[in-house]
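Model it.
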Amino acid sequence: MTGGETPGPARPKDQDTAAIGKMFSGLAPAYRRFNRFSSLGLDGRWRRAAVQVLHEAPDVLDVGTGTGDLAWMLKADRPGAGRVVGLDLSAEMLAQAARSGGRGSPEWLQGGADKLPFPDGSFDAVTSAYVMRNLWVGGVLESSLREAARVLRPGGRLVFLDLTRPSNPLLRFGHRLYSKTVVPLVGRMLFGDRWPGDYLKTSIEALPSVDVLRGFFEAAGFGQFECRPLWGGIVSLFIGRC
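Modeled.
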């Protein structure tokens, strides 16, 4: 997805964020394996790109941490110093996150992105992986951006990593074909009847254009905004600075 892309489909009718959290709770036991298999093992590289952007930020909040993969990477990147907090609506996801690492664990806390339980100016960076589209579908993206800006210190950065739609026609066709065949197969194998295929498809397609997202970031207080497509736009980094 690039700045010249036309806006995507209108946002679907808002879904209750608690219901979205409950849906992901049911996926928690196999969620990490799904990310690995469905991305052909590339999800770790994509998260690493976010970690590299935040290398110099001591205290980081990972919103919608899920099974904690990004939070653990962030913690390993700042051994012995810096605070890393993983926040998620799902207690089941947080349980998976807590048992997946070793020493020097991040802090784990249950909560939502639109009502962060922290004082103003608590962090140098806020990040998340594959959460922004869920916030959009849940109707809380704009309030979540404002909350992120509130808990950031002056000069702090917000870095969202999420699935996007490639702008190249050939790559876009291949990506759509892969998403309609391989991803559902992996999902049904791992989750059975709990596989939320329709939701996943809708949330990706409903994500607004870069220009619309830029407006949301700026309205929330981020004076600088950048979109960095990765791997041809299969995923992108959305970066804002206070």
